[in-house]
Write a structure and sequence with these properties.
4 helices; 6 strands; about 25% helix; globular
């Protein structure tokens, strides 16, 4: 069975200087690029997901509008389709990415499993077409879209691994709880081989 890598939301608005910046986002983009340089050929499919929100509505209540965002279910305007904030971070090498999928197009989506290709095909259909059964996940943010993607992948029956050194979260405690949730759903929390001096640490499946 095939193996896929999901690169979740490594976008300008989720990295330093963006509308919803996650500390360490830019450095994470560089680490994922280095990881792809070592391991891209080991994947049958590499998918990049992006928030791709409407700019002229509240995206199903996802944007707070005139109210103050609560940063749990409502958010400041971010990742509006076609704007610089919605583009991949420049330190992320997108050449190895085989397919882009887009989420939050008028709806409050978090999981990449809710995302669609440019032609409107849902990610689960793409994975089924490629006979993917194993999904590795990296990206932003651990406590939001990475969490939702991993839990949806487990609910759909995929063998799932999140590389904890290749994700970045908004809140440390909430991110730790998200990783615990993924473990409880029988997902794997692994480490990559990107730490200097460590070869395949933590039982990472490389």
């Amino acid at each position: 069975m095939a193996r896929a890598l999901l690169v979740v939301d490594v976008q300008n608005d989720f990295t330093e200087g963006g509308a919803l910046a996650v500390t360490g986002g830019a450095a994470l983009a560089e680490r994922i690029t280095a990881f792809l340089g070592r391991h891209a050929e080991e994947y049958d499919l590499i998918v990049g997901s992006r928030d791709w929100h409407h700019g002229d509505d509240d995206n199903g209540g996802h944007f707070a509008g005139t109210a103050a965002p609560d940063f749990e279910t409502t958010w400041p305007v971010h990742c509006v389709a076609g704007t610089p904030g919605a583009e991949y971070h420049p330190e992320l090498d997108t050449d190895p990415i085989d397919l882009d999928v887009f989420k939050g197009q008028g709806t409050p989506d978090y999981s990449a499993f809710q995302a669609r290709t440019e032609d409107g095909v849902l990610l689960p259909e793409v994975l089924a077409e490629h006979r993917v059964r194993t999904v590795d996940i990296v990206g932003i943010a651990t406590d939001h879209c990475v969490r939702a993607t991993a839990l949806d992948a487990r609910a759909a029956g995929y063998d799932v691994a999140v590389y904890e050194d290749l994700v970045a979260g908004v809140d440390a405690e909430r991110s730790a709880r998200a990783l615990d949730e993924i473990r409880a759903a029988q997902g794997h929390i692994d480490r990559s081989d990107m730490d200097e001096g460590l070869a395949n640490p933590g039982g990472a499946r490389l």
